[in-house]
Design a protein that fits this description.
The structure is a single chain. With 233 residues, this protein is an all-alpha fold. The protein has a single domain, classed as Four Helix Bundle (Hemerythrin (Met), subunit A) (Up-down Bundle), CATH 1.20.120. The protein has 9 helices and no strands. α1 packs across α3, α4 packs across α5 and α6 packs across α7. The radius of gyration is 19 Å and the shape is globular. It starts with a helix and ends with a helix.
Length: 233
């Protein structure tokens, strides 16, 4: 059995048969870890900005969402290339769903509490529409994945089809990166070209590069498994 399928099957088995007390512990751990990450990200923004506003807090929440979803997606690649990480695959669902929760908070804050209103007029302006469409597509995909991340869905859809649907997460993640890139490039360019007074980059750039790493590892995994399949035939 290919290592990727083995890891995915282990996750599927965990979702279907994990005892409730253990599930509650995993949820509790992941929520605590996510809060710690949010505090660290917020501290970085506070240290690198003259002020810390509600808008910056919302950016930090968006960054945490990408980090958690990215960790969820990259686990299969890490487990494939490094055996020591196999025991962490059980956190994949919790990472993804908690990350989707932060994504939801980010969206709600952007719509309801943003100073840039009315919605969606601000986001449909020429220079923002591409970023908005990327976010819209990504949101639709991750809402679908969140809806089927449960025992009932696996039973109704079937394990094979469920695994294929879960791979949509990588497409959604690419659209998240597109959203981040289209929105952040104007802030990153001065730092990348040495024209910024700030010594440190925006944390959104760091998160974006992490996301690119997730995609690269996924491509490496696909290439490796494809080569092994060809050799097997």
């Amino acid at each position: 059995m290919p290592a990727e399928l083995k890891a995915q099957t282990k996750l599927e088995h965990h979702i279907k048969y994990s005892p409730v007390p253990r599930e509650l512990r995993l949820w509790g751990e992941m929520i605590v870890y996510s809060i710690i990450i949010l505090i660290v990200v917020s501290a970085y923004y506070f240290a690198t900005n003259a002020s810390f506003s509600e808008r910056i807090l919302n950016r930090a929440v968006g960054d945490v969402a990408l980090l958690l979803i990215g960790f969820s997606l990259v686990l299969s690649s890490i487990c494939y290339f490094w055996d020591f990480a196999d025991k962490y695959i059980i956190y994949r669902k919790h990472l993804g769903l908690v990350g989707s929760g932060y994504m939801t908070i980010h969206i709600v804050f952007s719509i309801l509490f943003s100073a840039y209103s009315p919605f969606p007029g601000y986001y449909l302006e020429d220079k923002r529409i591409a970023s908005f469409i990327g976010a819209l597509i990504a949101t639709a995909i991750f809402v679908l994945l969140a809806a089927i991340s449960n025992r009932f869905a696996i039973h109704e859809i079937g394990a094979t089809r469920w695994r294929k649907l879960m791979r949509l997460g990588y497409i959604g993640f690419v659209f998240v990166l597109f959203h981040f890139g289209a929105k952040g490039i104007q802030y990153w360019t001065p730092w990348l070209t040495g024209k910024s007074e700030s010594i440190f980059p925006s944390f959104s750039l760091i998160v974006f590069m992490f996301g690119v790493g997730v995609v690269i590892l996924r491509i490496a995994l696909w290439f490796s498994t494809s080569q092994k399949s060809k050799l097997g035939n």
